[in-house]
Specification:
Strand content: 25-35%
Order of helices and strands: EHHEEHEEEHEHEEHH
Strand order of the largest sheet: 1-2-3-4-7-9-8
Largest sheet: 7 strands, mixed
Number of strands: 9
Structural class: alpha+beta
Shape: globular
Helix content: 25-40%
Length: about 210
């Protein structure tokens, strides 16, 4: 853990001192999700668009090795185009309306990614829980009122979501042939409930 570090990467880091970390994060993301989409859809032609368009890539590194990440971009649902963002293709209109009940600016979280070496319980830690907790920290530091999540149930991501502060919006929606829960991390609920991040997540966030 002493060699773990959090990097909040952006598109600009393709050409910065963090270009190595950006490239390694992309390789990790592509490897994990190309395999996942092969499993789900029988396709292995994952394009880079969904990675490149992100405003923030919250990435954990173990020295020079990518541990895992989640991808984030913001949408303003006062704009008509936001309702047609491809991320929300599994979301019914009523669920989107519930997501925006506290405000129109949404932090869209996607592609929770854990490198194979770090899956399950690694040195007593659940990396996917830590990644989700760091997403909550990002939400709390932003001007967004809520963070969205489309959580794959057969991988236990719905359980991770509820333990890290998410509220169920709609359960067991079919997406890519598996059931997902649609959730919202409502900032006001997290603050009022006094939800505390783990020591590891706090240490990385600092």
């Amino acid at each position: 853990m002493n060699t773990w570090q959090l990097y909040l990467l952006s598109q600009e880091d393709q050409n910065s001192a963090l270009s190595y970390h950006y490239d390694e994060a992309y390789k990790c993301w592509h490897s994990v999700w190309n395999e996942a989409l092969q499993e789900l859809d029988g396709k292995n032609n994952l394009h880079s668009d969904d990675f490149l368009r992100q405003e923030c890539i919250s990435t954990i590194f173990d020295s020079t090795e990518c541990v895992g990440m989640a991808l984030f971009h913001k949408l303003n649902f006062e704009r008509e185009a936001s309702w047609k963002d491809s991320y929300f293709q599994a979301w019914p209109i009523a669920s989107l309306q519930n997501l925006c009940q506290d405000g129109s600016t949404v932090l869209v979280a996607s592609y929770v990614t854990v490198a194979k070496k770090y899956r399950g319980v690694f040195e007593g830690l659940s990396v996917k829980n830590i990644i989700s907790e760091l997403g909550v920290q990002l939400l709390l530091s932003s001007d967004c009122s809520v963070m969205s999540g489309t959580m794959r149930n057969n991988r236990g991501m719905n359980k991770v979501a509820y333990t890290t502060g998410a509220t169920l919006i709609q359960e067991n929606v079919s997406f890519h042939g598996v059931n997902v829960d649609l959730v919202g991390y409502y900032k006001k609920n997290i603050l009022s409930n006094g939800l505390q991040a783990s020591f590891t997540a706090k240490s990385l966030w600092r």
